[in-house]
Amino acid sequence: MSDPHPPLAMAPSRARAWWLAVRPRTLAVAVGPVAVGTAVAHAGGALRVDAALAALAGALLLQVGSNFANDVYDSEKGADTEHRLGPPRAVQLGLLSPAEMKRGMAVVFALAAAVGLYLVAIAGWPVVAIGVASIATAWAYTGGPYPLGYHGLGDVAVFVFFGLVAVAGTEYVQSLRLSAEALAAAVPVGLLATAVLVVNNLRDVETDRVAGKRTLAVRLGARAARGEYAALVLAPYALLPCYAVAFGESLAVLLPVVTLPLAWPLVRGVLGGAVGAALNPVLGATARLGLAFSLAFALGYAL
Q1: How many CB atoms lie within 10 A of CB 146?
Q2: N or C, which end of the chain is more exposed by having fewer CB within 10 Å?
Q3: Model confidence, pTM
Q4: Of 262, 279, 190, which Cα lies nearest the Cα of 226?
Q5: Residue 6 has pLDDT above 50, yes or no
């Protein structure tokens, strides 16, 4: 098999290597939930800008820390090799050493903890549980004695922490309450975040199987993963009118429907059998779709 990522003509700078490890295209997944949680807090008359910005900073740091952990642990476990189909990884390419990446991961998680302390001062000790669980899960997705991503639990972890916890937690640090509206609003956000992971795992299903990484796509097979992706992308649109009826919201909460033309080509491409590196653009586009849907949902809710 030819190397899908041939050696670089010129090694990138150290700053460029770290930026590669940050994986900036994935950061959209962290922004959307904070926007929706803030919109729910605003609608309840509890908008607090400093808490919202701190929640955003914490979410971005957790995403970066998780990316660093994935970079180093997937390399150490053999899931990232010279035959990797996804975007290049810094440790696998030898741009950063495993020790350097682990130190970077520790620094980023420490910064996330510092942000968490600020939120504890605002919203009290319940934030400690949220923060500890979030950091532990970000690390344990690929690290530790029982890496979640290697045992088919990644989909659940992403839905819980990039959906329920992120949206409801953002509302909580501003309003000091946990509302049913926030939990319900978190569902479509979490589904779209999970879709990003599913297309990632679908792309890597063969290499993950060889490496012993038993993602849900590996366990159920590529065909089931394609169906899961389609359901995760389309279900949020079906849930919008249910949300409006259940909570007596105006039709403005249906605003995310304007993003449906972005969603349908992605679903059609995945169901049509796109494989391997051809799914890389779909992954990035799915992350952008999740952000667009979330921002439209937040705007519609605020209206």
Answers
A1: 9
A2: N
A3: 0.91
A4: 279
A5: no
